[in-house]
Structures are given as structure tokens and as C-alpha cells.
Predict the structure.
Amino acid sequence: MAIGACIEGFNSVIRPVIYIDATYLKARTKGVLLVVVCKDGNEMIYPLAFGFANSECTELWIWFLKKLYKLIQYPDRVLLVSDRHNGIFNAMEAIFPDAAHRICAYHLA
């Protein structure tokens, strides 16, 4: 799910740095929450898109990032930051081949 106002804001005024990650849900339903966020001018978290899935795998990330790719005005000018999970990394290479990819400093430590 992507909120139209957030996508419009990203395409017009937000720095083109996108943070991608997932977290496991521990509720009764289990699963994974996929999250794509940015930071606004005040260094606050700016939501871009999110989704729910049964598990984290390359095919899922490819599907998710294809949807994101269609929403971004200049996808070749973004910087993608992730924890280098194999599924995320493979999907970024397949869907955003011209974009810069970096690893999160927190996960690097």
C-alpha cells in the first residue's frame, strides 16, 4: 500500500534516499511487514509504502519493488539503503539496476 500524498511528496520535495526493510510480526497471524520509508527535511520518518506477506523471499521483494518502481518519478536517481538481506539485494539489482545501493550503517556494525 502506498499513500498517494506520500508518493507525490516524495516525487516533488523529498530527498531521493529510500530505506527498505522488513520486520517479522509476532501476533496471532504471523508474517512479515515490508516497509519503505524516507526522511523529510526535519529528519523525520516519511512513509512511502508498506505491505504484509507470509515470508521474506526474493520473489516477494521483486513484486514489492516493481510496484514501488512504477510510483517513483525518477527511479534511476534514487539511493536505496537496506540491510543487504539476500531477497532485498537481489530484488534491488533486478528492479533498480541503475540506482545506487548502500548498506545501512546500523546493520553494518
